[in-house]
Amino acid sequence: MPSTSRDELQELQNLGKTSAQWLHACGIHSIAELRRLGAVQAYACVRQRGFRVTRSLLYALDAALRDLPSKQLDEQRKAELDRLYHISQEHNARQLTP
């Protein structure tokens, strides 16, 4: 009998099966978990797992959490996401430095 379980992450705009699998690899299995972590940290986790993703995933995650198509994110929001991602990476690098 085929599995009837649904993947609620795939129900979000902009996210498909592959994006959901990347998030699952990070321990994110629900919309609530994605919201709690946020788009920037979820994107950082996917990258840390070694998946070759572009900033488009970051924008798709943020737009999905806002229930918007990715194309509706303006350049100012994208720049803010990029800035937040860089800050998070600098913070992580400092924590690893003895």
Question: Could you explain how this protein is built, in words?
Answer:
The protein contains five helices and no strands. It has 98 residues and is an all-alpha fold. Helix 3 runs antiparallel to helix 4 and helix 3 crosses helix 5 (75-96). The longest helix is centred in the last third of the chain and has 22 residues, at 75-96. The chain is globular and about 40 Å long. The termini are far apart. The model has no long low-confidence stretch (mean pLDDT 90).
What are the main properties of this structure?
single chain; 5 helices; globular; mainly alpha; 98 residues
Blueprint (SSEs and pairs):
Blueprint: H1 17-25, H2 31-37, H3 39-48, H4 55-65, H5 75-96
Helix pairs in contact: 3-4, 3-5
Q: Count helical runs.
A: 5
Mean model confidence by pLDDT: 90
Q: Report helical residue fraction.
A: 55-70%
Based on CA atoms alone, the radius of gyration comes out at 14 Å
How does the helix and strand content classify structurally?
A: mainly alpha
What is the strand content?
under 5%
Ends distance: 53 Å
Shape: globular
Beta strands, count: 0
Topology order in helix (H) and strand (E) letters = HHHHH
